[in-house]
Amino acid sequence: MKDIIIGIDLGTTNSEVSVVEQGKVTIIKEGDKKMLPSFVGIDDAGQVIVGETARNQYLVYPERTIKSIKRLMGQDTQVVLADQAYTPQEISAIILTRLKGIAEQYLGQAVSKAVITVPAYFSDAQRQATREAGEIAGLEVMRMINEPTAAALAYGTEQAEAKQVLVYDLGGGTFDVSVVNMQDGVVEVLSSHGDNHLGGDDFDQQIIEYLIEHIQETHNVDVRQHSKAMARLTRAAEEAKFLLSDQPYAQINEEYLLEHDGAAVHLSLELSRIAYEDMIEDYINATIDATHIALKGAKLTASDIDEVILVGGSTRTPCIRERLLNEFGFEPHSEVDPDLCVAMGAAIQAAMISGQEVDTVLVDVTPYTYGTSAIGVLDGQPYPFMFVPIIHKNSVLPNRKTEAFLTSYDNQDTVEIIIYQGEDPDALNNVKIGEFLVEGLLEVPRGNVITLTLGLDLNGILNVSAVEKETGLEKSITIKNALSQFEGESLDTAKQRITSLFGQMDPRIIEEEPSTVSDTPEITAARELITKAEGLFEKISAEDKEDMVDLIETMTGCIEAQDIEGLDKSSAQLTDIIYYLES
Ligand code: AMP
């Protein structure tokens, strides 16, 4: 039987094993799990436990459990596990032995060779320790490759032209950013930077602190003194974090968390994505600073980078994608599962060593961005049709994302939802693919929360639903062929069609029109002024027209935002121009 070389991503938080079979990369599952938590422990019966079970016992019996052993690799140190001392290599070898076993069970044959990935910053001593861990586990380490190299391999190696790729890798406990050069299947790491103590665990910790504080305030109990309750909070915090990657709010409910003064303490709390993003902002800033240091190390700037690849589970956090989009000006790639792409790259490297052909790792992704429009700021001006992306281009299908929106004026009982496909920050330059009204909303001050969920399946069916958060009032529509609708038809034609549609209708009144309900005298006067100004467009210079259009846009934004002070100011300026032109 031919020797098989497996690929292993030996991670700080999770590890995975993979193999190439008939040209296809497979992540080998244990049960239904593709990831093995990198935890090792000794259970009540004195047996070694690895993975999920060890992770579960960590919070309750930390003295019998080891986590994040990768951080100690290469150090002349020992860890104590149930009164026995072990080297980091030995603990890592326990994880590798388990991964080897998972692969052998799946393949039905013994496995003795592996490619193992290591961080680009690993020193010789750390690499040597990893090799030794492999040997202890009965694995000949055929090659050790850098994690960013593996990630880049998972995204394909075919192109002949040189490409500069930035690999942003944010896992549970570590952050690494590398600039790599790819050409003809050869991947070279140009520079690397990062933080060995920054990752999703820190994000969880922020939520945990918030929950501890909340319980202290509402029940006057210090949860830190209750290890089982802390274990539950830790789990709940991570689950809330997962939810917030896909939706704007997460409800955290932990009943009978603990007993205090003879009474049960229940936790019930809503956490918003905005509040959560605030908690982790400093960490994200630190990763962006590190990204610039890595670019500098490679003597490049953001504009030299052709692609950004997202690696590590924590990159599912939406504000990370947004920050990188802002920095580089294009969408980062995450089509290959960010948790698994390093392991996939390891298997691809293993297949290359054994002379096997490898197909590219193809996944179904959406070629377009889908979203809606809202009042916002565009080019520094208030604008009522700012495009708000909800499902981003290149997202893996099926996909479902929720965002929250607020009503824009008091007693607004109707909202019009318009769905667009495209990339332009101005929604009117994108393609409108559906619209509907949600009527009968609560008559409350502006700021009533409406959540909008977009669910896109593999067949291109887009389900859109809007829910008034307070009451659960829901309205939904289905848009068929959302993926293929405009493939055959040029986007320009579609745009023209939509633009001409708007030509017949003032786009400013497509949004729910507050003026019919609540026009103040200032707003009525401003509207008359706008009509008057537009009447002059034919007769004036392009320069004057441009000034007036800018002012009209500002005024429209002020009207939408009911900003009377701003409206007065811009109205006065427009009056001055009209006066000057007419005199
Ligand atoms: P890794 O070390 O690459 O396996 O990444 C593990 C980290 O990713 C952990 O901190 C997880 O909590 C985090 N993570 C996994 N899925 C998500 C998600 N959907 N949103 C935010 N963080 C996630």
Mind explaining what this structure looks like?
This protein has 583 residues and is of the alpha+beta class. The chain folds into three domains: 5-199 and 283-363, Nucleotidyltransferase, domain 5 (2-Layer Sandwich); 370-478, Substrate Binding Domain Of DNAk, Chain A, domain 1; 517-582. The chain is 35% helix and 29% strand. The chain is built from 14 helices and 25 strands. The protein has helices at residues 52-58, 88-107, 124-136, 147-154, 200-219, 227-244, 273-297, 318-328, 341-353, 491-504, 515-518, 521-535, 542-560, 564-582; strands at residues 5-10, 14-21, 24-27, 36-37, 39-42, 48-50, 65-67, 79-81, 84-86, 113-118, 140-146, 163-170, 175-183, 186-195, 249-260, 263-272, 307-311, 370-378, 381-391, 399-406, 414-421, 431-439, 449-456, 462-468, 474-479. Strands 1, 2, 3, 4, 10 and 11 form a six-stranded mixed sheet that branches. A four-stranded mixed sheet has the order 14-13-12-17. The chain has a four-stranded antiparallel sheet with strand order 19-18-21-22. A hairpin with a 2-residue loop joins strand 2 (14-21) and strand 3. Helix 12 (521-535) packs parallel to helix 14. The longest helix has 25 residues, at 273-297. It starts with a strand and ends with a helix. It binds adenosine monophosphate (AMP). Adenosine monophosphate is lined by residues 11, 13-14, 171-172, 199-201, 238, 241-242, 245, 312-314, 316-317, 339.
